[in-house]
């Protein structure tokens, strides 16, 4: 009995001693680990400073080693109807920068046509002993599309570099054409831009299509959607709609007038083309004017019009289906006294008598695929910009 009690007591003492030893050992190890970690951390070297920070800043390029030359191609004439990617066209200006130093040069180029364009800015890097040619073409503002006459305006170009005290400034007179002046280009290489005059959403075109409804059975203008209550095939339905638009234009009294004279140095390659709203409101047009008005009505109906250009003349047409290779051609210069049948006959006569290599067919749908869209209405554009500005001014502040 005594020995059993002694053994249990001894076991408890030993357990207590073992627990205490374990706790002391764990505490010692913890302290040692913290100490060692501080030593390791303190001995880690700081990352070296970047080499660039140790080197002296490069000296700026001397103004005497930089030369600028500003040229205005195209005799300084700007056609708002063309975009910078037109095949036969030119930038507003060309700036040549020559860096004769042994160091690269950063240049910030800003340009603006005072009162007619937004301020354009671009940054270029001119390498050591490099000459760089930069196109300068500021984006025109909506008011440029409201311009009805050729006028002289001012191009301002300004060039600076970061940290440079010197810069380059130049202003040049340039000539802004009327928005409706089209530069056809050499051998009509810009002819696809006539698609900008095809304006299917113009209110005058909407009225023309609405008036055409009275010249077709049941007043249905369904485009390429074959009406279930119409006898015949799709091509017959298209012909009926084309005939109805022809009759509506005939009733409006559209008659032939010559082209409007344009100013500038490209009178042989450029032409003033009336927009459909002008043609339909004044009831006067030449061959290209009346053709784009008709094409606008066809595109409004969801159909695929074409404009055909032959030497000294133009007429229109429309595909007889969305995937059809057949085109119904019309020469609308028979208006106001000619008939629909005479219009078709005259167009086909042109196609038979003019060599095919001298016939240029402009597919409006293809032009749209190339990003050539209708001419903007300047009043709508300016109103939209004004609305945005008012909205921004009235927006509650987040601060």
Characterization of this structure:
- The strands form 5 sheets. The chain has a 5-stranded mixed sheet with strand order 2-8-7-4-5, with no helix packed on it. The chain has a 4-stranded antiparallel sheet with strand order 15-14-13-16. The protein has a 3-stranded antiparallel sheet with strand order 1-3-6, with no helix packed on it.
- The chain is flat and about 130 Å long.
- The termini are far apart.
- The protein is built from 9 helices and 16 strands.
- The model is unreliable at 1-6 and 392-399 (pLDDT under 50).
- It is of the alpha+beta class.
- It folds into 2 domains: 64-179, Immunoglobulin-like (Sandwich), CATH 2.60.40.10; 187-380, C8orf32 fold (Roll).
- Helix 3 (203-212) crosses helix 5 and helix 5 crosses helix 6.
Tell me the major beta sheet: 5 strands, mixed
- Ranges where pLDDT stays below 50 over 5 or more residues in a row are 1-6, 392-399
Helix content: 25-40%
**Any idea what the shape is?**
flat
Determine Rg (CA atoms, Å): 38 Å
* Count of DSSP H/I helices: 9
Order of helices and strands: HHEEEEEEEEEHHEEHEHEEEHEHH
CATH architecture of the largest domain: Roll
The secondary structure category is alpha+beta
Distance between the termini: 87 Å
CATH class of the largest domain: Alpha Beta
The strand line-up of the biggest sheet is 2-8-7-4-5
Q: How many distinct folded domains? A: 2
The number of E-state strands comes to 16
């Amino acid at each position: 009995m005594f020995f059993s009690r002694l053994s249990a007591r001894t076991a408890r003492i030993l357990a207590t001693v073992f627990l205490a030893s374990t706790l002391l050992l764990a505490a010692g190890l913890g302290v040692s680990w913290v100490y060692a970690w501080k030593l390791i951390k303190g001995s880690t070297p700081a990352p070296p400073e970047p080499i660039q920070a140790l080197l002296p800043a490069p000296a700026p390029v001397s103004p005497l080693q930089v030369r600028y030359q500003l040229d205005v191609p195209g005799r300084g004439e700007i056609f708002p109807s063309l975009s910078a990617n037109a095949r036969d066209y030119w930038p507003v200006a060309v700036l040549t920068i020559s860096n004769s130093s042994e160091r690269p040069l950063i240049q910030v180029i800003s340009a603006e046509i005072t009162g007619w364009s937004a301020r354009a800015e671009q940054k270029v890097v001119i390498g050591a002993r490099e000459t760089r040619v930069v196109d300068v073409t500021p984006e025109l503002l909506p008011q440029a599309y409201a311009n009805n006459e050729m006028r002289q305006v001012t191009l301002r170009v300004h060039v600076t570099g970061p940290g440079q005290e010197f810069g380059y400034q130049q202003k040049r007179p340039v000539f802004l054409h009327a928005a409706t002046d089209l530069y056809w280009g050499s051998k009509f290489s810009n002819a696809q831009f006539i698609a900008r005059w095809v304006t299917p959403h113009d209110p005058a075109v909407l009225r023309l299509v609405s008036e055409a409804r009275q010249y077709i059975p049941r007043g249905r203008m369904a485009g390429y959607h074959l009406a279930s209550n119409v006898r015949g095939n799709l091509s017959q339905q298209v012909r009926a709609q084309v005939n109805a638009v022809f009759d509506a234009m005939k009733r409006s009294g559209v008659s032939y007038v010559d082209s409007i004279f344009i100013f500038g140095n490209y009178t042989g390659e450029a032409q003033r083309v009336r927009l459909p709203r002008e043609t339909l409101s004044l009831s006067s047009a030449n061959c290209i004017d009346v053709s784009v008005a008709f094409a606008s009505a066809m595109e409004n109906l969801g159909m695929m019009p074409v404009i055909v250009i032959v030497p000294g003349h133009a007429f229109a047409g429309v595909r007889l289906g969305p995937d059809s290779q057949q085109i119904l051609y019309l020469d609308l210069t028979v208006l106001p006294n000619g008939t629909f049948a005479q219009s078709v006959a005259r167009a086909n006569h042109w196609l038979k008598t003019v060599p095919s290599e001298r016939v240029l067919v402009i597919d409006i749908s293809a032009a749209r695929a190339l990003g050539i869209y209708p001419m903007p209405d300047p009043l709508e554009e300016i109103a939209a910009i004004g609305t945005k500005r008012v909205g921004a001014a009235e927006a509650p502040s987040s601060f």
